[in-house]
Amino acid sequence: MSFRFSLHGTDDGARRGQFETPHGVVQTPAFMPVGTQGAVKAALHRDVAEAGADIILGNTYHLFLRPGDELIARRGGLHRFIGWPHPVLTDSGGYQVFSLAARCVIREDGADFQSHLDGARHVLTPERAVDIQARLGSDIAMVLDECLAYPTTREDAAASMERSVRWARRCRERLAVLRSAAPPEVTVSNAGQAQFGIVQGGAFQDLRNESADATVDIGFEGYAIGGLSVGEPTGEMYAITGDTAARLPANQPRYLMGAGTPQDLVECVARGIDMFDCVMPTRNARNGQLFTSEGRINIKNARYAEDDRPLDPACACYTCRSHSRAYLRHLYLSGEMTAGALNTLHNLTFYLDTMRQIRDAIAFRTFETFRQGFLRSASRLSLDS
Amino acid sequence: MSFRFSLHGTDDGARRGQFETPHGVVQTPAFMPVGTQGAVKAALHRDVAEAGADIILGNTYHLFLRPGDELIARRGGLHRFIGWPHPVLTDSGGYQVFSLAARCVIREDGADFQSHLDGARHVLTPERAVDIQARLGSDIAMVLDECLAYPTTREDAAASMERSVRWARRCRERLAVLRSAAPPEVTVSNAGQAQFGIVQGGAFQDLRNESADATVDIGFEGYAIGGLSVGEPTGEMYAITGDTAARLPANQPRYLMGAGTPQDLVECVARGIDMFDCVMPTRNARNGQLFTSEGRINIKNARYAEDDRPLDPACACYTCRSHSRAYLRHLYLSGEMTAGALNTLHNLTFYLDTMRQIRDAIAFRTFETFRQGFLRSASRLSLDS
């Protein structure tokens, strides 16, 4: 196995570590920029790396539909196809099938859906999710799980969680087949690919516990907490994250899927999370919503029309070194593509810088001080509200 | 005066030189990427500079309407506002007023028009074009001229050319006022700003000669040839360019406005042109039309779906170093913003590399050999036709 997690140290619940993959080492806690279609939106790979990303996330649903996992396998796998030589994690495709595809029908076997691109019908089974990710050759693949909307009944949450466990077992079994004797139709692009299980159970901690125990019982290289950041109150999300993380093995990485705001990262690191992904820094950037150490900025606001200051005086990114708020506002209002590029570069740097500060604070065992300072600071507040 | 042109040497009609501006030196023959609204579309300034641009062009019409020349003057001028510390040339705004604005009415005094953004009425007089560019603080300002469509009658071309000469004189007189005693309402952002006259006259060489003589008689730091690349046959464009350039002072720079294809650059350098601007490399890039040393590529073409080669094996740009044609096609078809960014980076590099090769060939007095090789090569042909 090429995947290896090492825990360097802890500071209360927060954990400082790293994991090794066939494409390099990732320092944890880590934030993974989202590269949906094999590209982080509005950011060139070199800028993503320069902003401090060790690893990016690719969306299996999108890549399966276009350009197709078989084409990517023929190109030598996702890393070679997209020209990103560093680690990549892929999701299972399930979340987009349930949220983006048309006419999705979930059966025990898997999910039937129609492509949002051309209406073609497809079936995503646990085995197929494994095969597709094997062809993509990501460093970390995720099991296919069912992600319910919030709120849901206990009964629905239980049934869905139990199905997710059954699907997780099928995913692990399929990976074992691919590792020992892959059939000719599945090109395994990355023999060292790891596979993470996903804990579900909605907002019901006893179901979460049951899911965690059953998933750990199957045995994966790491564990994710799914089905959060779907509309539940923040306090509830933190509580479930903390209680669930505590139930997962200490010597394996824990990944909170789809979170979140900068303070979510800090709060969930405090609760034992090692990995995050979220579209927030990149999507908000394209909408002119910028994170700074002094608070959030909506660059469209007229107050920035003649503001010669950088977005964030504390930031060393290219955008902040080179441009004023006045210019960034002008680019945004003028519809220039460089608005999205410069804003994305900054927001990614803010997120990845926050992770670096988190890692340093844990290493120096000053994380609680950092956390309190971070949450007191204006960075979670809007300057424009 | 901060503007100084030096002719280093010639090779038949081709000229190798440089000009100095308050923001740095420009090697000639030079190509100026178009930064319409204070940004080269889809390219960050650092990438524009890295691609080899000494100077960019800004469009006065766009900047006047948004964010406004007075706001830019308050920010310290265009260079400081946009964060580009290198030379900038601005056009007069006339071309966009005639082609882009609504309900344009040209009178002897100037042009009445409605903003394409909000319908507001404005008047652009020669004096106002000078004032606006003084506030922008570009290193080279252009006189307001009238640019006719092709074809036109001799009578119309003559009347328009004569008006352009009268407007050029008014522009020069206004600049003299600003240089000696600018009124309080005109902030002069760049005291070393040069001003170029523009030769008009349509496709009638005798009118071109008359215009050239009258414009040189007024006296400017450099001279442009306007009103070409508007639909006339290429051979006619080359002939007028050559004959007109020959009539301009040898010790001042000559700028062919709005041209052109890579072979236009080579052919017009051969005819004595020192400066070019064109949206072709950037606009074509965003449409997936790419220039390579082996021919033009339409990246949408299915033949590139599994093509692992770089766009241009002879190119050292980031795009060609990092990505395959297959990936660039995927990005384009997926509507990713990075498609525009990577394609623009490449096309700009191709243009600016061509200019560097032109300059080297002139310096070594091998320009005719370079030219014949360049025109023989596939670079002007489409690989996808």
Descriptive report:
The structure is a homodimer of 385-residue chains. Chain A has helices at residues 45-50, 60-65, 69-74, 78-82, 94-99, 126-136, 154-181, 205-218, 234-246, 262-270, 280-286, 318-322, 325-333, 337-363, 367-376, and strands at 4-11, 14-21, 24-28, 30-32, 56-58, 88-90, 102-106, 111-114, 121-124, 140-142, 194-199, 222-225, 254-256, 275-277, 289-290, 297-298. The first copy, chain A, starts with a strand and ends in a 9-residue tail after the last helix. In chain A, helix 9 (234-246) packs parallel to helix 10 and helix 10 (262-270) runs parallel beside helix 14 (337-363). By secondary structure, chain A is of the alpha/beta class. Helix content of chain A is 42%, strand content 17%. At the A-B interface, helix 13 and helix 14 of A face helix 13 and helix 14 of B.
Percent in helix of chain A: 40-55%
User: DSSP strand (E) fraction of chain A?
Assistant: 15-25%
- Quaternary state reads homodimer
Unreliably modeled segments of chain A = none
- Total number of β-strand segments of chain A? 16
Rg value of chain A: 20 Å
Query: Outline of chain A, from the CA principal axes?
Result: globular
Please give the largest β-sheet of chain A. 8 strands, parallel
Q: Which strands sit side by side, in order, in the main sheet of chain A? A: 4-14-13-12-11-10-6-5
Structural class of chain A: alpha/beta
Number of helices of chain A: 15
- Round the mean pLDDT of chain A to the nearest integer and report it: 96
**Largest two-chain interface:** A-B, 38 and 38 residues
Distance between the termini of chain A: 50 Å
